Amino acid sequence: MNLFEADAITKTFPRSNFKLDVEQLILPPNTITGVVGENGNGKTTLLNIVAGEAAGNGKYQYFGNQVDEKSDWLNLKNDIGFIPQRIPRWYGSLEQNLILKAGMEGIAADDIAAKLDSLLDFLGLQTYRHLKWTEISTGYRLRFELARILLGEPRLLVLDEPLANLDINTQQKFLSDLKVLLQEKDNS
Question: Is residue 156 within 8 Å of 62, Cβ to Cβ?
Answer without folding.
Answer: yes
